[in-house]
TrEMBL record:
It is found in: Cell envelope. The lineage of its organism: Archaea, Methanobacteriati, Methanobacteriota, Stenosarchaea group, Halobacteria. Residues 43-70 are annotated as: Disordered. InterPro entries: SBP_5 (IPR039424), SBP_5_dom (IPR000914). The keyword Transport applies. Belongs to the bacterial solute-binding protein 5 family. This is Solute-binding protein family 5 domain-containing protein.
Amino acid sequence: MTNQPGRCMVDSQSHGGYSEIVSRRKFVELTGIAGAAALAGCSGGETDDNGNGAGNGNGNGMGSREDAPDFSEARLRTANSFFDPEDIQYNNHLWDGTTHINNSLFPELAKWNYITQEWTPHAAVDWDAGPETFTVELRDDLVWSDGEPITADDLEDRLRIGEEMGEELHDFIDDYEAVDDTTLEVRYSEGTNPFIVEQSLLHHHIDTPRQMWGEFVDMDDPDIGNIQSFTPRGLGGDDDVDDVIAGGTVVQDERGAQNISYRVRHSGVEIDGREIEPHPDADENINFAGYEMGYRSGNTEYHQSMMSGELDAMHSVFVPPETVDQFEHWHMIPTPMGFGPGLIFNHDDPHWGQREVRQAVAHVVDRQRAVDAVGDTTQAHIETPSGISTSLVDEWIDANELDTYTGGEDVAADLLQDAGYERNDDDVWELDGEPLEADILAPAGWTDWITAADSAVDDLTGFGIDVSLSPTPRPEVTGERLPAGDFEIVVEGWIPGGMNGFWPYFSLDHVFRNTDFAEPENRPWNNLPQEIDGIDTHERLDAFAATQDEDEMREIAQELAELYNEVLPAVPLTEGLEQSFLSTDGWGFSTDEGDVHNQWPLHWLPKQGNLWATE
């Protein structure tokens, strides 16, 4: 091992406050799309014709690639907290069973960096936005693991499946077509905001090889139910495929009871007697053998495994500051997440559907206390509920027009009394003899969210609102309870997370017409009505997506932020930093901010030659 520090260098990124970390470029830089060349450059070095970043972390990272072996049999050990290895599958259009390994199994068009606010090309080497057409140019050297070339037809197939699944891209575009082997054209109405198209398109992975997905893309009208029931695991059988065809840098190697192993597609690799077509970047950029994916039930098990040396990398795990201090041989990469827990209300509920009740909750819940409970080094305080990231407030809206909801119990009591509530003999608020109570669902194992929610529960119960926290497996919450409307309050993301969390359109769309967890599809999962206080929220969002005029965008953002602040579809608790971790025990990597601040470092850095085995 070379140059291995003894402790996790939490402060190595030298960041200032949260708003400084996530400050965006000026509007003209965001919407003046002139092609990939103008947006690249976040890989720490020049980019070759295939979109491969040349930066290797030398002089700015953990160890030196020059001192590393040409090849190591090491496997980068990681885990997920949702699915046992036997349940992991590779249909990215079905949340149940998918994990972050798909970021290595399938190539993304480009990678978004949350600090530089730029794209780095990968499967796409160039893109350009015109008045009515967005053109994507693909690399010509990518191949599936069975030797078939990856072409623009594969990307067209991917968009076709996404269209059937209702992906947001198709809310903004009219058509798409592979015009030759490497070029795909996306067409939209004149006036459509090209930045929204860019953000909705470039994060896609090419993950539907026709060899596996042909039955769906060949249908005139593929059935969503059939797509959602397709769970390829590479086990064979009536409802499976014999082999999972990969287009990324790794392919499934062996499935065990505790782990699934993945092999990097180096030259000469064979699995079960089958030769695997090499990935064009693997031999040059990746010097280790592959990955191992295991399971941990939640953050506590993650922490134990990280401290005991059972894991080498984590894509995302909450670790409080006092626990980080106990980690040896770990490097934390804090990345803005545009995500955080909030109290999401069922607006069909007789209590929580009342605006005055939600406003009372907002006045009682001490958001700074929630931040302090979780750890103020990883969370941002939400000064004013607006529906958009704290980092965007100063740039996009006038927060002086919004209520900060810091009135405390006196203001909350007035609101409840105005709504007809009174305290009963147990000092609990009630309406017509029905106590104001709720069982708050929270994702089990998400200790940061549960800690923030516990703080809110303490505030509310102390005020006389009878709530309790019910940790529940998140697949049950999102797959069953939310779609059925079977909840009163749930702890969920109050903004969408990822790069969409840093663009007001997507954050406000997430609030006002989110159908991710809803049935039927046209019902937002919080049962929020489309028209509120005479404002058709869907029409205003459509207008946001259909304009390139900055003043109009800001006007709509202000209008919808004020509406959010008045109606409170959710009471936000905190906004956090994503914590990714890489071990320095046997591994070296770049720490340059242009390399690491993305989703996710353990998968992206090896593709760029910026993470390597040291022994």
